[in-house]
Each structure stands twice: as structure tokens, then as C-alpha cells.
Amino acid sequence: RVVSSDNKGLDGAYVYVRQKDKSHFAGLPKELPKTDEKGNTSVLLPPKGDFEFLIKRKGHCPKLSICSEKQKKLTLSLSKAINIRGRALDKKGKAFTGLYISGKSANNKAYEGLCHTRGHYSQKKLTSDGSFLLEDMPRGKVTLVLAKRYSNRAIADLDIEIAPQEDVSVEREYVFERPGEVRGKLLSAEGEGMRSCIVILSPPSAP
Known about the structure:
The chain is mainly beta and 207 residues long.
């Protein structure tokens, strides 16, 4: 059963399920029963193992919960969410373009789970001026991540914090550190150019 923070049933919530430690959630929304007007739904599970449930509903923060085959009933509470509007800029005021943005919450692992829900990747494409709209995000500490489509490798990220009473209806500018480039030539000890090499860069160790 899916309920609000004041314990009222929430209809129209999507329920995704996967076996614990597996990479993908099963099913698309049209294949899974949404919750009814009382917040109830049912999912047929294999007889053994632990499972993760991802609950998603418009206007609410998603939730990730673990359930074993011994649990016949599960009640999950969803809290109200907010939308984050903004522009992704670098320190020179230039907009990031051609990338996708997503949000992660340190206190809500469901935002990482959303990235592995088939057909419902949480990334949103930046517009030509770097603008974006992230829906159903939590208040508190959030990490904004810029990456290529369907990639979990961040090109740039930014930690922000949204206060409980902060007005989020206006668009804001979020300044990311634009990744730099290192150009050079690899030479052997004899001074000859080297090909087909893998270069790994790491920060210098502390003295």
C-alpha cells in the first residue's frame, strides 16, 4: 500500500520491482498495476529471495524499499516533492549544452534506482541555453549531475541544498566546474612516439 505522509492512500502510483542486487527493475508502467484510490496494488513475486520496490508518483519523492518473500503486506509512505528549475553554467557564464542533467539525493537511494528503470531514465536534456527542469525532487541536500545520455559517469556535478521554506518557483543559475583538457605527446625513453596507450590522470598525492 502506498500512502502520503499523513497516512492517506495515494492512487496512481507506479510500483517497480527487482530482485535485490540486480541491475534493472522489471516492467514498464503500462505492464504493472498502478495503485487504486485507496493506495493498494499487488505484485506477483517469485517464492524466494529479497526484493527491492521502487515507488514513483507524480508530485512525490520516489522511494526504494527492501522486502522479503515472507512479507505479505508492505506499506510505503511518500513525501511531497518539488521541481528544480535552473540553468547550468560554467564559471565564465557560458551555458552547458548537449548534455543531460539528473539529480541525486544523499538521503534517498531511490534517485539512483530511477537511473536503472527501463524506459524511465531520470536524465533531462539541457536546452540550447542550458535551462532544465527536474521534477519530483526532494528538499535538502541534492547533487546535480551533468553527463552524456544514459551514462552514469559524471562530466560535472554540483552539491546544492534547498531549505524547507525556500521558494523554488523561480529559475536559478547553477555554476558547475567545466572539466579541463590535457594535451600532450607520449614518448618512450628513447624519445619515440607511443601509440595505443591508456592514460590515467590522478591528483597529486599529499607531501
